[in-house]
Write a structure and sequence with these properties.
419 residues; alpha/beta; 7-stranded mixed beta sheet; 4-stranded mixed beta sheet; 13 helices
């Protein structure tokens, strides 16, 4: 049986990403992925943000191989182990303290949705309130609690049950004339608003799946003040846009704020290994032993890879590298890709080419794939082609990939205008 037939015959129809890329992949290095036929593809997909440091990063991989060859413990629930101690110590001394941050580190199950579930549990127990507020355009996960705080209609339909205890606030980019902070304060102060004070507000400082919309520093600062004033827990979802994706290790650093809880997954696993962290304000560290649990929260190999990725990030000055690549991407997209009907927006190494509808974005995606580039779509109606390369992609590959995007957009839009 042909390998593609295996998936079509035996794998559940819930599979999604693979439907856009009709080939079987075999190997990967850096920012190049190779299929079983020997075809190379530039990677602007980056494992949906799980491979910030590239495929098979040599430094991280060497630490993983060394640990494997030494018969290190692979699975040990939440026992005390050397890899876990080393990761915690490095995180505290090299990442948190230099940034003036003080958090207890929780190890939930190893996924983005699980770290958000854990954050909601903490906020609800600490405040004694059930509701979570999120923003229109949010994506926070696919398990029921996190899905309740996710806005995509199709994602929510998959639950098959009501998704209570979450309410959605308007965003400044959708309603430029609306003072969103004042609106939320009115909901709390007006005894006829129909709203109760939430336990927490969760925000992605740049909404990724929502279409690459970045909240301003001013809005984030006002939101921090609003939460402090009203005794509401502020949760920053850094699952996809953390680990330097937007230019600093934590996405909120640019605004100079300190969230109460920070959720992380994806590239905190270093090399694509499953890991999640929930960083919690020490005064809110209120869950009893075992009150949040998970068989695979003790992924020792991921602890090794995570520490190695943090070392690599600091040693190679990845934050500076992201800002260099941001300038290249921004200049190229704004000068060579933007045109009538095509909107450009982004930050760091996550950008959107918004074509206005899924039909056109899919045509661009397909054309890019035919020419050796892999990327995904995002936003309302999947209208955006999402550019999300490795943070350490060589400049020549970055420019080559951007040229493929340009040619694909020009081809699709020229054909559309000729109709």
């Amino acid at each position: 049986m042909d390998q593609k037939e295996i998936f079509e015959t035996y794998e559940s129809q819930v599979r999604s990403y693979c439907r856009n890329f009709p080939t079987v992949f075999k190997s990967a290095k850096g920012s190049v992925v190779t299929d079983c036929d020997g075809n190379d593809f530039i990677d602007f997909f980056d494992g949906a943000g799980a491979l910030n440091y590239g495929h098979n990063n040599p430094y991280i991989k060497s630490k993983v191989i060394e640990y494997l060859e030494g018969d290190g413990i692979m699975h040990w629930l939440d026992m005390m182990t050397a890899p876990k101690a080393e990761l915690i110590q490095f995180m505290e001394e090299k990442i948190l303290k230099p940034r003036g941050l003080d958090y207890k580190i929780m190890f939930p199950g190893p996924t983005g949705t699980n770290t958000n579930e854990a954050a909601f549990k903490v906020a609800r127990k600490y405040t004694g309130r059930p509701d979570i507020w999120a923003f229109m355009g949010s994506f926070h996960g696919m398990t029921l609690g996190a899905l309740a705080a996710t806005t995509d209609r199709n994602d929510r339909k998959g639950a098959g049950v009501p998704l209570p205890y979450a309410h959605f606030m308007p965003t400044p980019y959708q309603f430029p004339g609306l003072d969103v902070i004042n609106y939320m304060q009115t909901l709390l102060d007006d005894d006829h608003s129909g709203y109760e004070k939430p336990a927490a507000i969760i925000i992605e400082t740049t909404q990724a799946e929502g279409g690459i919309y970045t909240f301003s520093n001013e809005f984030l600062q006002q939101l921090r003040e609003f939460c402090t004033k009203n005794d509401i827990v502020l949760i920053t979802d850094d699952v996809q846009v953390g680990c330097c994706r937007t230019g600093s290790f934590f996405s909120f650093e640019r605004a100079g704020i300190k969230p109460d809880i920070v959720t992380m997954s994806k590239s905190i696993g270093g090399i694509g290994l499953p890991l999640a962290l929930t960083l919690v304000n020490p005064k809110m560290d209120c869950l009893n032993p075992g009150e949040h649990n998970g068989t695979f929260r003790g992924n020792q190999l991921a602890f090794v890879a995570s520490k190695a990725s943090l070392e690599f990030m600091l040693n190679e000055h990845v934050e500076d590298g992201v800002r260099e690549r941001e300038a290249v991407i921004k200049k190229f997209l704004e000068e060579k890709v933007a045109r009538k009907g095509v909107e450009i927006r982004g930050i760091g190494c996550i950008w959107a080419v918004d074509l206005g509808c899924s039909r056109l974005s899919k045509a661009v995606l397909d054309e890019c794939f035919r020419n050796g580039l892999i990327l995904e779509r995002a936003g309302r109606d999947d209208s955006c082609v999402k550019i999300m390369p490795s943070l350490v992609i060589p400049m020549d590959l970055l420019e080559k990939g951007l040229e493929i995007v340009k040619k694909a957009v020009d081809k699709v839009m020229d054909e559309e205008e000729a109709k």
